[in-house]
Amino acid sequence: MSIAVGGTALAALAIMTFSLTFPATVWALDGFGPWTVTGLRGLLAALFAGAGLLAARAPLPARADRLGLAVIAVGCVLGFPLLTTLALQTSSTAHSAVVIGLLPLATTVCSVLRTGERPSRSFWTAAVGGAVVVFAFAVQQSSGGVGLADVYLFGALVLCAAGYAEGGRLARHMPGWQVIAWGVVLAAPATALISVLGLATEAVHLDTRGVGGLLYLAAVSQFLGFVLWYRGMAAIGVPAASQLQLGQPLLTLIWAVLILGETLSPAMPIAALGVLGCIVLTQRTRSTPDRA
């Protein structure tokens, strides 16, 4: 298997795991408050990651990599989980999927600004087209309008895109699992404090759905999924990998139907074909560094 094919497979598998994040968050909110969910998912992930780092005797990150890891901690471990969890208190899973539809473009922009990658014009055309399809489909499935939940989602989008871009950059010279491991460990003091404050101020109702959702968020969404994601991005490049994420909102909407009982419109097959077409185009028009 070539590096490109293997990287694409890893990134696609990561997207599959991430597509269950919103349904798992809805489940977790059945048993815990939003601040508790955010704190505990990050803290539990830090315990898993810390054990792995100790077992592997991983060296401390180089000084030059610490700023990037801090961006991952703020964007992917603290900002995105908290803001999307707050949004899901008042917004449907379908509406919240809008942020995922726009995330590939935002990630590519962050990568271009940070690493100097310069996607081709055809790549940009396909990426924008895919984002438009996903955005239109997700909005059509939602009640529309702009409210506080949309503000949360926009903030989550920006923070997560920055974390994804930094993770893809660091994974080029660090093992992908160590990138996210150090990110969650670095955020551990903050997630521990959030956990304590959340448990002290928010109600807790232990049940199978709540605990199961929280464990999935901690073990998969916050750690194992990122291991696959960063390795995939390192292999095929941040812009190309991020465009695979165009399919994540549609997968999330499928899980919303199967797991949460939400109803979708007949437009879903049309949107799915449009997104798959854009993904194929972006994979065929891979970015190249700007040599000007």
Question: Helices, strands, pairings?
Answer:
Layout: H1 3-18, H2 21-31, H3 34-56, H4 66-87, H5 93-115, E1 117-118, H6 121-141, H7 148-170, H8 176-186, H9 188-201, H10 208-236, H11 238-244, H12 248-260, H13 268-284, E2 288-289
Antiparallel strand pairs: 1-2
Helix pairs in contact: 1-10, 2-10, 3-4, 3-8, 3-9, 3-10, 4-7, 4-8, 5-6, 5-7, 5-11, 5-12, 6-13, 7-10, 8-10, 10-11, 11-13
Compact description:
This protein is mainly alpha-helical. 79% of the residues lie in helices and 1% in strands. It has a two-stranded antiparallel ribbon with strand order 1-2.
Can you tell me about this structure?
The relative contact order is 0.23. Helix 5 (93-115) packs antiparallel against helix 6. The protein is mainly alpha-helical and 292 residues long. The protein has a two-stranded antiparallel sheet. It has helices spanning 3-18, 21-31, 34-56, 66-87, 93-115, 121-141, 148-170, 176-186, 188-201, 208-236, 238-244, 248-260, 268-284, and strands spanning 117-118, 288-289.
